[in-house]
C-alpha cells in the first residue's frame, strides 16, 4: 500500500499574534484603571470616559483582527492607529495639566500594541512608520519633547522595529524550512518508488531484453525496445526532474512514448529554471545524462537557449554519427559559469568539413550552436578527431556579459 508523505508547515509568528492579543486586552484594562485611580486630576473627565469606553469596545470587537496575519488588514491597521493617535491628542483636553506634570496619556501603553500589530503584519518598515506617527503625536501632546517623552517614544520605536525585523527573518526561515521538508518528503517518495520499480518493472524489462536477444528474430527487436524503455525508466526514476503529463503508444514504432511537460516561455519569463529539467527528456537508450545532482539554476532565457544548443548537438550526432552511435551529456556547475559537454562515439568530423558546410550554406553548427552561445555571452568549442568521435563544449556565464567583452576574449 502506497504511503503519502505529509509536510507540516509551522507558523513561528502565530504565538506572537496571541501575545499581541493578550497585550491589547491587558493594556486596555490598565488604561481604565489608571483613569479610575487618578480621576480627580481630570478637569473634563467625560472626555476620558467617552474615549476609554470607545477604546474598550474597539479592543474587544477587533480581537479576531489581531488573531492572525490574514485578519489584520491594512484598513484595520490604519483605523487602529487612528484610535491610538486620537487618544494621545485628546489627553490635554481631558487633563489640562498633562503637559506640565507628565501625566500619562489616555491610552497609556495601549498604543504600543498598535505599533506591534504593524510590525507583525508588515515587518520593520511598517513598524517604523507606525511608531514614528505615535512619536509625533506624543511630542505634539506634550508641547515640547521632555526627557520622559523621548525615552518612551524611543522605547516603542526600537522595540517595534526590532520585532518587525525578527518577524521578517522568521518568515524567511519558515519558508526555507517548509521548502526543505517538501524536498525531503519528495526525495523519500522517489526513493521508495525507485525501489519498487527496480524490484519489479526494471527487472522484467531487463529479462525481456536478455531473452529477446537470445531468441533472435522478432523477439530480438522486442528485447531492444525493452532495453530502451529500461534505460529511459532508470533515467526518469534517478532524476525525478520532469513532469509527465501522459503516456501514449506510438503505433509506427510499437513503443511507449513519454510525453514531458516543458515550462512555457511566457510562464518563465524573467524567472529562473533548473537546466536539468530541460535536459532530462533528452536522455534515452543511446543518450546518457550526467548532472551534479543539485539544481543548476540559470535565467530562463539562458537555460532554454543552452538546452536548444544541446539539442542541436544531439541532432548532429543522429544525422552524422550513425544510428548506432551513443552520446553523453555532462553538466558542470562552476558557480560563475555552467559548462555542458556533449560527446559521441561516432566517426568524427573530417578536417575542413565544418568550413566546407558553412560555405555550402549549411549553418547548423555556426548558427544553432555557436550563435546561441554567442548571444548569451558564452562560447562553444568543437573538438573532433576522425575515428574517435566529436565533443562539443558549451560554456555560459552566470551573469550576462556584453557582446564586446565576450568577443574580445
Automatic annotation (TrEMBL):
Pfam families: DUF5931, HATPase_c, HisKA_3. Residues 305-399 form the Histidine kinase/HSP90-like ATPase domain. Keywords: Kinase, Membrane, Transferase, Transmembrane, Transmembrane helix, Two-component regulatory system. Gene3D superfamilies: 1.20.5.1930, Histidine kinase-like ATPase, C-terminal domain. The chain crosses the membrane at residues 21-39, 45-64, 76-94, 123-140, 152-170. Residues 389-409 are annotated as: Disordered. The keyword ATP-binding does not apply. Residues 189-241 form the Signal transduction histidine kinase subgroup 3 dimerisation and phosphoacceptor domain. InterPro entries: DUF5931, HATPase_C_sf, HATPase_dom, Sensor_HK_TwoCompSys, Sig_transdc_His_kin_sub3_dim/P. The keyword Ligase does not apply. Residues 5-178 form the DUF5931 domain. Residues 392-409 have a biased composition (Basic and acidic residues). It comes from the Bacteria. NCBIfam families: HK_morpho_MacS (NF047322). This is DUF5931 domain-containing protein. It comes from Streptomyces roseicoloratus. The lineage of its organism: Bacteria, Bacillati, Actinomycetota, Actinomycetes, Kitasatosporales.
Amino acid at each position: 500500500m502506497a504511503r503519502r508523505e505529509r509536510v507540516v508547515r509551522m507558523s513561528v509568528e502565530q504565538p506572537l499574534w496571541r501575545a499581541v492579543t493578550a497585550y491589547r486586552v491587558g493594556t486596555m484594562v490598565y488604561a481604565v484603571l489608571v483613569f479610575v485611580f487618578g480621576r480627580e486630576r481630570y478637569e473634563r473627565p467625560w472626555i476620558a470616559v467617552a474615549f476609554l469606553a470607545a477604546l474598550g469596545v474597539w479592543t474587544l470587537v477587533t480581537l479576531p483582527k489581531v488573531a492572525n496575519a490574514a485578519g489584520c488588514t491594512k484598513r484595520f491597521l490604519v483605523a487602529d492607529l487612528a484610535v491610538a493617535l486620537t487618544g494621545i491628542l485628546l489627553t490635554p483636553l481631558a487633563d489640562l495639566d498633562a503637559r506640565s506634570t507628565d501625566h500619562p496619556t489616555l491610552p497609556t501603553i495601549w498604543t504600543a500594541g498598535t505599533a506591534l500589530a504593524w510590525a507583525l503584519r508588515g515587518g520593520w518598515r511598517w513598524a517604523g512608520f507606525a511608531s514614528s506617527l505615535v512619536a509625533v503625536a506624543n511630542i505634539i501632546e506634550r508641547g515640547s519633547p521632555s526627557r520622559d517623552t523621548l525615552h518612551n517614544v524611543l522605547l516603542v520605536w526600537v522595540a517595534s522595529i526590532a520585532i518587525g525585523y525578527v518577524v521578517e527573518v522568521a518568515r524567511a526561515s519558515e519558508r526555507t524550512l517548509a521548502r526543505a521538508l517538501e524536498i525531503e518528503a519528495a526525495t523519500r517518495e522517489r526513493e521508495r518508488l525507485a525501489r519498487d520499480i527496480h524490484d519489479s518493472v526494471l527487472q522484467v524489462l531487463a529479462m525481456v531484453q536478455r531473452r529477446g536477444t537470445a531468441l533472435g528474430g522478432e523477439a530480438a527487436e522486442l528485447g531492444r525496445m525493452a532495453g530502451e524503455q529500461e534505460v529511459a525508466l532508470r533515467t526518469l526514476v534517478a532524476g525525478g526532474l520532469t513532469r509527465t503529463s501522459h503516456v501514449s503508444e506510438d503505433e509506427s514504432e510499437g513503443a511507449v512514448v513519454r510525453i514531458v511537460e516543458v515550462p512555457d516561455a511566457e510562464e518563465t519569463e524573467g524567472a529562473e529554471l533548473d537546466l536539468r529539467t530541460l535536459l532530462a527528456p533528452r536522455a534515452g537508450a543511446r543518450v546518457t545524462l550526467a548532472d551534479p545532482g543539485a539544481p543548476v539554476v540559470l535565467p530562463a532565457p539562458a537555460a532554454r537557449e543552452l538546452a536548444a544548443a544541446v539539442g542541436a548537438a544531439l541532432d548532429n550526432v543522429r544525422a552524422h554519427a550513425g544510428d548506432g552511435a551513443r552520446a553523453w551529456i555532462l553538466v558542470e556547475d562552476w558557480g560563475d559559469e555552467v559548462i555542458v559537454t556533449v560527446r559521441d562515439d561516432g566517426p568524427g568530423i573530417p578536417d575542413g568539413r565544418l568550413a566546407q558546410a558553412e560555405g555550402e550554406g549549411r549553418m547548423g553548427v555556426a548558427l544553432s550552436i555557436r550563435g546561441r552561445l554567442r548571444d548569451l555571452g558564452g562560447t562553444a568549442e568543437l573538438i573532433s578527431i576522425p575515428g574517435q568521435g566529436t565533443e562539443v563544449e558549451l560554456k555560459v556565464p552566470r551573469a550576462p556579459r556584453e557582446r564586446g567583452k565576450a568577443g574580445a576574449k
